[in-house]
Amino acid sequence: MLFNSFDFALYLPIVFILYWFVFNKQLKIQNAFLVVASYVFYGWWDWRFLSLILFSSFLDYFVGLYLSKSKVTRTRKLLLWTSICGNLGLLGFFKYFNFFIDNLAQSFRFFGQDITLTGLEIILPVGISFYTFQTLSYTIDVYKGKLEPTKDFLSFAAFVSFFPQLVAGPIERAKHLLPQFYKQRTFNYAKAVDGMRQILWGLFKKIAIADSCAMYANTIFDNYDGYNGSTLFIGALFFTLQIYGDFSGYSDIAIGTSRLFGFDLKRNFAYPYFSRDIAEFWRRWHISLSTWFRDYLYIPLGGSRGSTLQKVRNTFIIFIVSGFWHGANWTFIIWGFLNALYFLPLLLRHKNRVYTGNIAEGRLFPNFKEFKGMVITFFLTLIAWVFFRAETINHAFAYLEQMFSASLFSLPEVRPKDIFVLIFVFICTEWFARDKEYALEYLNFNKYLRWFVYVLLVMLIYLFGSNSENVEFIYFQF
Questions:
Q1: pTM (2 decimals)?
Q2: What is the domain extent for residue 61?
Q3: Which residue among 170, 196, 240, 447 has the highest number of C-beta atoms inside a 10 angstrom radius?
Q4: What's the pLDDT tens digit per position in 38-55?
Q5: Does residue 291 belong to any structural domain of this protein?
């Protein structure tokens, strides 16, 4: 079920009313209702894949219980690896099986052996990368003694399947979200209004910004060989804005929807395109995934400790694995490799933690150094997004070669003026709210101005939504 669909527009108020006014008498009943509602939400795509969520839920619940009972190191390690292999095994089969089969066949052909290996007609379950990492982090934290295992399977099942963030995050940690299912929840009007406000902003980013940019980005990327360099640059720019509006918009809707039900989710985006270097960008982009890889892969490998060679190794591992997490395609691996190259000089010069606050803090505009850093970081990110968007590596290199040709300085062949005005207003709005959790959080004053903004956003969502296709969220494919 898509957040930007008519189905969800009917589903959400029904679930909200039943949750607060029918199933609110007992906590267990309320949690059970959330599990059922979440399974309906997920099963709307394909009910068969509910078995995978149930498998992960049962596996990690019982592994957690047995970890709490066992003090034998060997047994505990066996339990941990049972969880890791079970979860990553499912993820690997559905997401990467055909990738490895295809590349194995190509390897044999490279050495002159023409073999035929048949792939499988596998449908990628929506959100499997997200809920797999979420439930896996629970087992690892229990194993490390950072979290007490739960004996309440209903709460654990609700934690794994919680519908607002089930299919595209944020990837929640059990120590933050799971305890919220243990406590009786009471309706908070102010919290619900704040949630609705964030949902509205998320829908605006998705429908008015991302989907509008997608129309031009898709046309230009799919027909890149027929456009000049300046048009290809605009195509890359549109995709850069599309993926931000699309994914951060989803996160806003997920976080806002959770507030309607009395839950707090972690922030997933912090205005990443206002970053002054690539290290700051990765602290602000897809925060829940970046911190997951930091805590469960980068730090266990040694992090930034050890020799220079170890630092370089760890940096490339975490970025390449992050790229591979996004999809079974060499383009994502190159995207991760490229970001590692961007990040490495900062790490080796110990400048990867220079910018930890907001840009232009206490000022209206950035100084020249900040502005230069922001422009360079944005440009480097845009180049990397070309690999992320391209169908193949050859497609990406051909696109960039044509983009950086002499025709880069000619007039673009696609000039959508209306969307540029909207993008400018959008960027200005986020800039002035860069110290807030989300852009509309500052709308807590004059009610007439507040309602004017609400009505304007609804009109823009309707206007641009009727002019563009109902595009699925990009991160659903991951």
A1: 0.93
A2: 6-186
A3: 170
A4: 999 999 888 888 999 999
A5: no
